[in-house]
Amino acid sequence: MFRIALQTQDARDPVEVSVERTGAADNNIHHAHVNGRHAEVEVHQLGDGEGWLRIGGKVLPYIASECNDALHVWIKGRIYTISVVDRKPRRATGEATDAARSTINAPMPGTVLQVKVEVDDTFEAHQPLIVMESMKMEMTLSAPHAGVVKSINCKEGQLVEMNAILARLDKKRNGESLDS
Amino acid sequence: MFKKVLIANRGEIAVRIAQTLQEMSIAVVAVFSDVDRDSPHVSRADEAYHLDGIAPSETYLDAHKIVEAAKHHKVDAIHPGYGFLSENAAFAHLCADEGITFIGPSPKVISAMGDKIVAKQTLETAGVPLVPGWSSDDANLSDIRKAADRIGYPVLLKAAAGGGGKGMRIVEAASDIEGALGAAQREANSAFGDARVFVEKYIARPRHIEFQIFGDHHGNVVHLFERECSIQRRYQKIIEETPAPNFPDSLRQKMGESAVAAAKAINYTGAGTVEFLVDEHGHFYFLEVNTRLQVEHPITEAVVDQDLVRTQVLVAAGEPLPFTQDQLRQTGHALEARIYAEDPARGFLPSTGLIDRYHQPHGRWIRVDSGVRSGSLVTVHYDPMLAKLITWGDSRDESICRMQWALQRYVVLGVTTNIEFLARVIDHPNFANGDLHTHFLDDNDLSASKSGNVPDEAFIIAALTMKRRAASRSRTSGDDESRPVYSDTPWQSSGRWRNT
Fold first, then answer.
1. Measuring CA to CA, which residue among B338, B336, B334 is closest to residue B386?
2. How confident is the model over B72-103, as pLDDT tens digits?
3. CATH topology of domain B133-201
4. A131 and A72 fall within a common domain
5. B292 carries an active-site annotation
């Protein structure tokens, strides 16, 4: 029996899934359980991540691919993004906790037009920090909280990919943490 | 006939042009930028040469680099495709100076039609209707009021220096014009430092309908009927079709004649498109002339059963048009949907990255013009359009059904695309009814269904995939199962139709 905890893109409650081949090894019928709901599934694999299922007579061609840390599952015209729930306990690093830190990430691929702050600058919540452009659209990236600029990870004029970290921020000011 | 032609373009259009040239026994020369070395448009060519750089300005837009390559490799003609240098009169001139045929209209026509004011004046003289309007450098309230009365309400006040909707006011009735004019002038003055405002007829729910025209060097000019291109997002067409739905034959004939008159007035040669706005009462108004092959040309090819690139090449080589107006007929109906690497759920932001899986639908009445394959990298440097999906049917209903089938079987994983959004547009009852206008995407609810529920099947497939991966990791030998059933080889994918 193969068990796994999965979650959807919006990471609501984990979904417990198990699949188990029934009977002989050349048999492609599986028992599947999704959060306790049972289905008998005929699995036809055609290659890496491709194939079709037959569930209660319904034929469902699929293609699954793993990229950007998630599985993208295409089923007949719809794409679902699913990831594996990470159950490993987080190791204590001795550094500031995540809550005291944040990053400014590129919301889209594009060009950095303007960096309005420098390392060690303090800023207020909602203060514009970086201006980006993509496909002639301009977007201002503002501070999610008040704090100090820890590092700047981009240059004006630089092309950046989506989700690239543009700056790292600390949520503290004048040596004291704002969270404590 | 030409022996060797250079395609000064990339992506799906370069692939598409290459196929026709090769079918005509003409050798194809591709050019490519640093990041396009592995692209399909390179592998489908007979020869390919590198253009140093990435940015369009130093590669596909660099007229001198391209003409140098053409001279060096003894090319007879250059096909510019669409975009890039296709409507660049200086480039067309440069080609002529170097003794290379530019496959397109003359530099004179390109520059005249590229200047919107000159184009409007020229076409007005030829009797093509323009959107009624009036402007003057020192217009006062009573002049504007008189002009609006003459044009008929509603009217649109627009800043002469304008753009982006600033200084723009819709005026429904004569009683509102004084206030609207003051507001428009103040806004225009603060936005552009220029308070001049002109008045134009306001067209509430316009349709964008364009006519394909073709001229040769022997004085022949024809039109190849219309294309309905009203489904647009920010002036970017995403779905096109022909024949236009709910479009009377009498209007088709009048607009076709008008398009031909326009082409004759400017001695047009090669392929071109005359764009019109059509209002709810069936009045049509000239918008602009595109002096090149359009993105959406395949739908015309499907219903008139002609290869427009082949016709462009014949005309450029000095041959007469291979058809007369009387020989051209519309048979059936064709639809095109443009596949873009963009994320409708995130305000249509462009998406980039590696296309991990790419499978396109196949079928006798399905055509895919694609510039990508599995493993292609989508970057921010060029247009996010990956491919075009075209379906043909006996009737509009039939081509719509085929489009629904094909969109459901079009797989792009790794880069987010608009495929599901296109399916929602095609599935919308107002689309089925042919109730089309340029605000269609704003006026209809096309958001994904609120129940974003993931079906159990998806979780089962994810679990099976993870199980298989775990098993293959534990095995030392590789995976002995065969590769995918689908494939994206050119032989299966690019079939064009033959209408019976």
1. B338
2. 999 999 999 999 999 999 999 999 999 999 99
3. Dna Ligase; domain 1 (3.30.1490)
4. no
5. yes
CATH code (residue A104): 2.40.50.100
- Containing domain of residue A109, as a range? 99-173
pLDDT at B135: 80
Quick one: A79 and A106 in the same domain? no
Tell me the average pLDDT across B314-332: 98
| R_g of chain A, CA atoms, integer Å | 23
A92 domain-assigned: no
The predicted structure's pLDDT at residue B452: 65
CA B49 from chain centre, in angstroms, equals 27
Segment 51-110 of chain A within 8 Å of chain B by CB: 53, 55, 60, 62-68, 71-80, 82, 84, 107-110
Domain topology for B207-443:
D-amino Acid Aminotransferase; Chain A, domain 1 (3.30.470)
B281: pLDDT strictly greater than 70: yes
Same-domain status, A8 and A78: yes
Q: Which residues pair with A75 in a beta bridge?
A: A62, A78
How far apart (Å, rounded) are the C-alpha atoms in residues B79 and A114?
Answer: 39
pLDDT confidence of residue B55: 94
Is A138 inside any structural domain? yes
A63 interaction partners in chain B (CB closer than 8 Å)? 357, 359, 411, 413
pLDDT at position A97 over 80: no
Shortest alpha-carbon distance between residue A130 and chain B (Å): 18
Q: When comparing pLDDT for A165 and B96, which is higher?
A: B96
- What is the rounded CA–CA span in Å between residue A112 and residue B65? 29
**Shortest Cα distance from A123 to chain B (angstroms)?**
28
State whether A65 and A135 are in the same domain.
Answer: no
Percentage of chain B with pLDDT > 70? Answer: 93
The answer to whether the CB of B370 falls within 8 A of the CB of B378 is: no
